[in-house]
Automatic annotation (TrEMBL):
GO terms for molecular function: lipase activity. Belongs to the 'GDSL' lipolytic enzyme family. This is GDSL esterase/lipase 1-like. It comes from Populus trichocarpa. The keyword Signal applies. The keyword Iron does not apply. Keywords: Signal. Pfam families: Lipase_GDSL. Gene3D superfamilies: SGNH hydrolase.
């Protein structure tokens, strides 16, 4: 499709005889006439990309429904009571309501960004959500039951081709992708799954080697998106994974001890040290590369240690689930329990925050100070 539509008009100029007295007014009329003619040939675009699109990658913290359409999905949460706080029905979001990317879209004055696999979804101008519940940066994490990060990248490339093929020119798509913001929530499952499944994978690598593989896969995907045109990236550090209700319950079951599973949290800490270093390295080598890192670890930890300060009463037990800490993945399934007042809880189910918590995190990601998000917050990424 052509980049612009030109409107052409044949104008027949009649001879105008002027007297000396009306020469000045004639000059004025001629100037106005020329301006009018010029306006007729100014190109008008079929689409406006003055706004900034939002493209979303990652796991269940960001998945708004892709797993609903995935055969043999590991984590499919399109059952009640998921979604009941805001949507009043289950949408495939792993929360009682909206997720972090939903709020980011709202702050950016964008509509809710739809899942890539949603049937009939061809409205890519505002962005697309590629995230999949249970996904990891490593292909092996929950393999064949999720859309891993590498496959999410492939879906993104297919979307770019589709944009060009169906409705838009190469130049317009390049502009759209260069202005867009790309946000990621990935890595948690790579560290969580070995503990939850009693896998021996962590015996094959040192902690540092394993983290390096996870980080390497993330940065490889970012570099591929950069090659296609992406320039602005938002990522998050990981929370203290061992303090999720699921791993608290697992520690209790396996060791009889209470508290957080420190081994899982240690991997998250190593990840959080490595991530800023590699992003800074990318910035030094990739022209125009800009990024934001949200300190998810510190902000979540503050709520674990000072719940009342942030409006929470319960931060160890999930609102929905069963067993110790309601830490089993049974929310919405037979025998589950659900709390009376979800707004009092930090966790909705075994590992996922409530809508209230998601809003607080998203707000900090959007316009938080450099104490929690740096070198830029997401609002700045949308503006530059």
């Amino acid at each position: 499709m052509m980049d612009s539509i030109y409107v052409t008009t044949k104008v027949e100029l009649k001879k105008i005889e002027l007297t000396t007295k009306n020469m000045e007014s004639s000059r004025f009329i001629n100037i106005c006439f020329l301006v009018f003619c010029a306006s007729l040939i100014i190109p008008t675009r079929s689409h406006s990309y003055s706004h900034v699109a939002l493209f979303i990658f990652g796991d269940s913290l960001y998945d708004v429904g892709n797993n609903n359409y995935l055969k043999n999905a590991l984590a499919r949460v399109n059952i009640k009571p998921y979604g009941e706080t805001f949507f009043k029905y289950p949408t495939g979001r792993a929360s009682d309501g909206r997720l972090i990317p939903d709020f980011v879209a709202e702050f950016a004055k964008l509509p809710l960004i739809p899942p890539y696999l949603q049937p009939g979804n061809r409205q890519f101008i505002n962005g697309v959500n590629f995230a999949s519940g249970g996904a990891g940066a490593l292909v092996e994490t929950n393999q064949r039951r999720v859309i891993d990060l590498k496959t999410q990248l492939r879906n993104f490339k297919n979307m770019e081709k589709q944009l060009i093929r169906e409705k838009h020119g190469v130049a317009e798509v390049k502009t759209l992708l260069s202005k867009a913001v790309y946000i990621f929530s990935i890595g948690s499952n790579d560290y969580f799954v070995p503990f939850a499944t009693n896998s021996t994978v962590l015996q094959s690598y040192s902690q540092e080697e394993y983290v390096k593989m996870v980080i390497g896969n993330i940065t490889a995907v970012i570099q591929e998106i950069y090659k296609i045109g992406g320039r602005k990236f938002g990522l998050s550090k990981l929370t203290a994974l061992g303090c999720d209700p699921a791993l608290r319950a697992l520690k209790l079951a396996t060791t009889g001890g209470s508290g957080c599973m420190d081994e899982a949290t240690m991997l998250a800490k190593l990840h959080n040290i490595a991530l800023p270093e590699v992003l800074k390295e990318l910035e030094s080598h990739l022209k125009g590369f800009t990024y934001s890192i949200f300190d998810f670890y510190t902000t979540a930890d503050e709520r674990l240690n000072n719940p009342s300060k942030y409006g929470f009463k319960e931060v160890k037990m999930a609102c929905c689930g069963s067993g110790p800490y309601r830490g089993s993945f049974t929310c919405g399934l037979k025998g589950y329990q659900v709390c009376d007042n979800v707004s009092e809880y930090l966790y909705f189910d075994a590992v996922h925050p409530t809508e209230k918590a998601n809003y607080q995190f998203a707000k900090l990601m959007w316009k938080g100070s450099t104490q929690v998000v740096k070198p830029y917050n997401l609002k700045t990424l949308f503006e530059i």
